[in-house]
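Thread: zinc ion complex, take 2
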Amino acid sequence: MSVDDTPLATSSAAAGDVHAPAADRPGALPWQRTMLASLFARRAQWPHALLVTGPAGIGKRILAEALAGALLCEAPRGDASACGGCPGCRYVAAGQHPDLRIVEPVEIDEDEVKSVEWISVDRIRALIRWAEITSHRGGAKVALIVPAERMNEAAANALLKTLEEPPRDTYFLLVSHLPGRLPATITSRCQRIVAPRPTREDARAWLSRQDVPGADSALAQANDAPLRARALADADYQAERDTWIRALAAPDRLEVAALGARIDAVPRDRRKERLAGVVDWLCGWCVDLARVRVGSEPAQNAASEAALRELARAVAPLALFRYHRQLLRQRALLAHPLSPRLVAEALLIDYRALFG
Ligand SMILES: [Zn+2]
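Output below.
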């Protein structure tokens, strides 16, 4: 599932209040207000390549889209934010602005939108050709690359030359929660914007305005990243998570093959995503085991506190630490699991072994 950020057209759907403060209109999130106001105040000095970073699920893409909107607005307000009503803003809201290109790891195959592993070099070459033609509406052109770390090596190299000498009035907005995976040659040519994180109260308030069920639990699972929490609050995802958490709570009865089969039960192209969920659940569970062992409250599994307390007494701290490290390593390798089911089963076997 896409946990970070909503496409521009849908994120502006909640708009409507023309009297809202500048940075609270279409696209912007409440915790981004202050930063946007100060960025808008320096609008004339914006460089041609910006890199928006920060953890997944805090609204980096929405922040980048607010910047894109300001660049493409044809009648900006006094504070340099987008007006929301001019032809430029209306094209942006409809997802049809000819001078805005959004490059994502999705491709259209026989009219079906499919997610792909990498942003290919062909996509970036096409973007560069687009960047070199004259602006359709006579103003700025904006390219959004989300998430930028999904460009493959050839794609990043192709972009590099253009970032060195960007065409006039053309802006490249890169969004990444893993900027360390971008070549340093790219990051060094971008001015970095660290997207603001909401406080837990901001995040709660935002989720409650969106009527997200089980918001507190989802927020804990999402490390307080509200957009990620909104995605995790999905009923099917939570039901599957409950099944796995119940199994982890009783390692002596844990049936590895039965759980592994649950991964093969999802469509092939979503198994990797399901494995990513499983690794997240295992990670959160192990962190909570460590927390209750030292007398803290569980962070992500408050409902299973009794089981956690009992298991924490049976687990050796060093073994738990090593297992957690193994999970983190596995998480870094998630892009290329040989078989999601086999990876999950191996992790479950090692988990069960923690309790002798
Ligand atoms: Zn406008």
